[in-house]
Amino acid sequence: MTQLSKITVEATVNAPVAKVWEAWNTPSDIMQWNTADPNWHTPSSENDLRVGGKFKNRMEAKDGSFGFDFEGIYDSVIPHQEITYTMGDGRQATTLFTEKDGKTHLATNFDPETENDPEFQKAGWQSILNNFVKYVESK
Q: Which family does it belong to (predicted)?
């Protein structure tokens, strides 16, 4: 099986990195923004933000027809700069936080899974990131 290229999604939040970091990592916040589609939601979130710590976000269709746990273990946590984790299936993702002039640039690159088209995966992760930006900027 060939290894697919990593996928990158990016966005800039009109907020300082401390606010962005907090909203990215606080379970009550995660439950508000972690969705790619208005028909979905995140009814529960757990986050132990430290190397070796685990996170688990329950993602479900609002009509109850489907759901899954998005979870992983942190490999690297550098406050206000970087988070790297390995998902349950062995894929890895890294998010970089870069503050400039009171705004925070986020860039996440991740290993795609093999079931869905890479463009579909990129669109889904980008949609979640865009939701995050809207959420933080409205707080």
A: Belongs to the AHA1 family.
Could you read off the pLDDT of 57-83 as tens digits, one per residue?
999 999 999 999 999 999 999 999 999
Q: Which residues pair with 58 in a beta bridge?
A: 44, 69
The amino acid sitting at 128 is I
Contact residues for 3 (Cβ-Cβ < 8 A; gap 6+): 111
Structure tokens at 107: 């860039």
Q: Is the pTM of this model over 0.85?
A: yes
Q: Virtual CA dihedral for 108, 113, 116, 119, nearest 10 degrees?
A: 30
Check: CB of residue 10 under 8 Å from CB of residue 130. no
d(CA 71, CA 103): 28
